[in-house]
Amino acid sequence: MRAARQQEEHRTWFRSERVFLSDGEWYFHTREGVDVGPYPSQFETEIEAGMLKELMRNVDAGEASLRVIREFVLESYAMGRPLTPNFSRALVAMQRR
């Protein structure tokens, strides 16, 4: 499937698992370079990744997408599930633009 967000140029994406296990905890990786987690199970991680993907469907790439990810993380925290996302790769990529 070749879907692009609004205002995002079409490019070839190299597919790999977005859900991964690190130090016994589950995370998912976003196109923006953010690792979101930890989650207690692979199943829950896949569900949350799908929820964020739907939120991102009509968002422009760049800073707007990072705001949506930030709000997603803050909402999870407010619901009693504190996440510790890693934004470092995303911020480095933005600085290169």
Please characterize this protein's 3D structure:
- The chain has a domain at 40-96.
- A 3-stranded antiparallel β-sheet has the order 1-2-3, covered by helices on one side.
- It is globular, with a radius of gyration of 13 Å.
- It is 41% helix and 14% strand.
- It is built from 3 helices and 3 strands.
- The two termini are 26 Å apart.
- The protein has 97 residues and is of the alpha+beta class.
- Strand 2 (25-29) and strand 3 (35-39) form a beta hairpin.
User: Would you tell me the structural class of the helices and strands?
Assistant: alpha+beta
Q: What is the overall number of helices?
A: 3
Largest sheet report: 3 strands, antiparallel
Taken as a percent bin, the fraction of beta residues is 5-15%
Quick structural overview:
This protein has helices at 42-56, 63-78, 88-96, and strands at 19-22, 25-29, 35-39.
Question: Topology of this structure?
Answer:
Blueprint: E1 19-22, E2 25-29, E3 35-39, H1 42-56, H2 63-78, H3 88-96
Protein traits:
alpha+beta, 97 residues, 3 helices
